[in-house]
Design brief:
The protein has 793 residues and is α/β, with parallel strands linked by helices. 36% of the residues lie in helices and 19% in strands.
Length: 793
């Protein structure tokens, strides 16, 4: 919350003026700057000016805005209840002025193939952007801010010398950011759609998404009301569709008329209007630093988030709130600017991840057009991963129930507890205990630890429990503690475990993951130094090419043709032992930079023979191994393949190649693809975040037409339900949640009030199927108010 302790500051106590800093890179000591320049008169800059002036009336605040007061981009602005709450607390006068002009609504309409689906309970508030600027202009003038409209700001160096603080709120094309590019180190990422901001002179009765399938490709309309008689209308389409439709040759008026014709039904035959509207390509802005000396970035100058989640103005206003608060709370300007960035950066990063997921969903909209109508609507609503199955159930249970019925959920059955069939194996729910290396075997033999570890998770309700990567040879181990299937003794030990799972947890399947470490072998146990070479007792490594995993790692030998034959046979023999050991499913590990993954990635496969070069050649050996294993693996039992769908490194496996890899394995008989990412090269730069790998599974599922297992920071049953119901995956594999709670799946069922066949408690555990009672903590409610003795008058 914004502190207001400076709002009645005594000018005499704070001083009326002080010399401006002579060096912009040596800012003033105090964090309560008396002279501040704001570059940019958009909502973020104006609100910053108003807050700083309100908190300390003795401040000299100057706003430089090169445009006229009513010049603005776009038409309407959407603000969340959370943002409005911050505004109300910080400046009730602004809040009351905004509230008087808000239009509010609850519904989202999704129109696709002449069918409209409505979801309610979303609570939107919007007003015209011009009105917002008028309110902020008036507030700034009332407070005594010096508004210099139609005035180009002086160079930032000059402003920095003359002021205690310079706030660069000069937008996505920020000249300030460019002036200090070597310090802020911005990254601007263009995207694949063109869009144009327009308006209609009537109010939609909901936030409307409309899909138009034209002869040139898919186009979409985003529309929402911002006043009782006007709506924002954004038309968006892929670049190639935009060109094919001829928009690149139309002027503003022609584009506006053409958009109105395409979306004639949504507009009820009414026209659209423009306001210096131009087709634009959205760019995501990220800066490594947000401040330099006494210059600080705010709003779109610091970061952008795609309009499809409506966060541009919201982020700028919240930046202003945080910056003003940090300037009040911190003793020096450097500390204040550091605190501002520390507070806002994680929030912005989370919003940008959600925005990226949303914009990419719309970029790939054509991928989902064939989904059942209600699933398509649910998919659109949950595209950013911020709105989930449970969110929608709370907002609109009727809509969510209709999506579940269309999906095939029996009454009272969450999507995650619907069955799924792979070849001859029917899984009772959609939860998989992901393969997790335990590094606890002796001579490759799984022992009591593995029995307890895998047995506990099998009792915990998941449909499928996967072993760690089980190595096909002593040389194929990652560490001395890795389990194997290269001896009969190891096979017998695994049989003990599968027998327990089948007897102790009927209905639970257990799968084995077969792999070979390749160049990532002969390393220490994870907790002794992950990927670090053994101090002694090393064994020689082999790989597609003689490339060490990282500096200091052992250099592997390049596999010869004869050695390729030997490795292929090792996989085949291990698969035979796995079948004899009673595993229900076999997964071939072709991910994470291990041997078979090393063939697939161009970063690790530099061969010039028939096993290197093009993707077709890089696939050759992994497919040969797959065929050898499939030949001996029982026909009724399914086989899956785990792949790294991206290397998170320049020049590595691309998302397009991942689809082709999945298609190739499916053509050879893979029943599903387990879609992971990365861990192929040490210099990777993954984009971590909630469910961050699932878009790759989504793409493979829809484009390759093969069932997929999604992995990667899926941490809640709500995530699982959302991903399954949206059609982004068929199964969800979770690792860390099952380390935290072996009974994660059963607890997920209990928390959702589900007690059906998709989550069966083992008989000895049924008494624990409800949370244990705890002591009462509520106190008696006051019933009577007792007064002193009655006084007679």
């Amino acid at each position: 919350m914004l502190s207001t302790r400076g709002s009645t500051a005594d000018p005499g106590a704070r001083g009326t003026a002080r010399p401006a800093p002579t060096n912009p890179h040596s800012p003033a000591k105090t964090s309560h700057p008396l002279r501040a320049a704001i570059i940019g008169g958009g909502p973020g800059g104006l609100y910053t000016a108003a807050l700083l002036k309100r908190l300390a009336p003795d401040r000299e605040i100057t706003v430089f805005e090169r445009n006229a007061p009513d010049d603005t981009f776009g038409f309407g602005v959407v603000l969340s209840d959370e943002t409005l709450g911050g505004i109300e607390h910080a400046d009730p006068a602004v809040y009351e002025a905004l509230k008087a002009h808000f239009v509010r609504w609850d519904d989202i309409d999704i129109v696709h193939r002449n069918t409209r689906h409505t979801s309610s309970g979303h609570r939107f508030a919007a007003l015209g952007r011009r009105r917002l600027l008028e309110i902020l202009h008036d507030r700034c003038r009332d407070l005594g801010v010096d508004l210099r409209l139609r005035t180009e700001a002086p160079p930032p160096d000059e402003l920095a010398r003359a002021h205690d603080l310079v706030v660069a709120a000069d937008g996505v094309h920020s000249a300030t950011r460019e002036a200090y590019r070597d310090v802020f180190r911005p990254r601007l990422t263009p995207h694949r759609c063109r869009y144009i901001w327009l308006a209609a002179d009537f109010a939609f009765d909901a936030f409307r998404f409309e899909i138009a399938e034209t002869e040139h490709g898919v186009m979409q309309l985003h529309g929402y009301p911002y006043s009782p008689d006007a709506s924002t209308v954004i038309v968006e389409m892929r670049e190639e569709v935009w060109r094919a439709a001829g928009f690149d040759e139309l002027d503003e008026a022609e584009s506006t008329a053409r958009c109105a014709k395409i979306f004639n039904e949504a507009l009820g035959g009414r026209p659209l209007r423009s306001n210096k509207s131009a087709w634009t390509t959205f760019r995501t802005v990220v800066n490594e630093r947000w401040s330099h000396g006494n210059v600080v970035l705010l709003g779109d100058a610091a970061h952008t988030a795609h309009f499809s989640i409506g966060s541009g103005t919201k982020l700028a206003v919240e930046d202003a709130l945080a910056l003003a608060a940090c300037l009040e709370e911190q003793p020096t300007l450097p500390q204040a600017l550091a605190a501002y960035e520390e507070e806002r950066r994680p929030v912005v990063a989370s919003t940008q991840r959600a925005a990226k997921a949303s914009l990419e969903w719309f970029e790939d909209l054509a991928r989902y057009l064939g989904q059942p109508p209600r699933q398509f609507a649910f998919n659109l609503l949950t595209r950013s991963r911020r709105v989930t199955h449970e969110n929608l159930r709370l907002r609109d249970a009727g809509f969510t129930d209709s999506v579940e019925r269309e999906f095939g959920c029996p009454p009272g059955t969450p999507p995650m507890f619907t069955p799924f069939r792979l070849r001859g194996l029917t899984l009772r729910n959609r939860v998989v205990v992901s393969a997790m290396d335990m590094y606890s075997a002796t001579d490759g033999v799984p022992g009591d630890f593995h029995l307890v570890h895998l047995g506990a998770r099998a009792l915990g309700g998941a449909a499928l429990v996967m072993t760690e990567m089980v190595c096909v040879s002593p040389e194929g181990r990652i560490t001395p503690g890795c389990a194997g299937l290269y001896t009969g003794r190891q096979g017998e030990a695994w049989r003990r475990i599968t027998d327990f799972v089948h007897a102790g947890a009927p209905g639970t399947a257990i799968g084995v993951q077969l792999g070979h470490s390749g160049r990532k072998g002969s390393t220490r146990l994870m907790w002794e130094g992950m990927d670090e070479p053994l101090p002694d007792g090393n064994w020689p490594l082999v790989a597609p090419s003689p490339l060490p995993y990282r500096p200091g790692s052992q250099v592997p030998r390049e596999l010869s043709r004869a050695q390729l034959t030997d490795v292929r046979q090792q996989f085949r023999t291990a698969a035979e032992r796995a079948g004899q050991a009673g595993f229900d499913l076999l997964e071939l590990h072709c991910a994470h930079g291990y041997l078979l993954s090393g063939f697939l990635s161009p970063l690790t496969n530099h061969r010039t023979d028939a096993y290197g070069g093009s993707l077709e050649k890089r696939l050759r050996f992994p497919l040969e191994v797959f065929d050898a294993v499939r030949e001996v693996w029982p026909d009724e039992r399914p086989m899956t393949v785990r792949i790294s769908a991206t290397d998170w490194a320049e020049g590595g496996t691309s998302a397009e190649e991942a689809v082709e890899i999945a298609r190739a394995f499916a053509a050879h008989g893979a029943d599903a693809v387990d879609v992971s990412t990365g861990q192929v090269v040490a210099g990777e730069r993954p984009e971590f975040g909630r469910s961050y790998q699932t878009p790759y599974a989504d793409r493979i599922r829809h484009e390759a037409g093969v069932p997929v297992i999604a992995v990667g920071a899926i941490s809640s049953w709500d995530d699982v339900n959302s991903l399954i119901l949206a059609g982004r995956t068929d199964l969800c594999a979770l690792a860390r949640p099952h380390l935290y709670d072996p009974h994660w799946t059963l607890h997920a069922a209990a928390e959702q009030g589900y007690a059906g066949p998709g989550a069966v408690w083992p008989a000895p555990y049924r008494a624990g199927s409800r949370p244990p009672r705890t002591g009462r903590t509520d106190a008696p409610k006051p019933r009577l108010t007792l007064h002193g003795p009655r006084q007679d008058v």
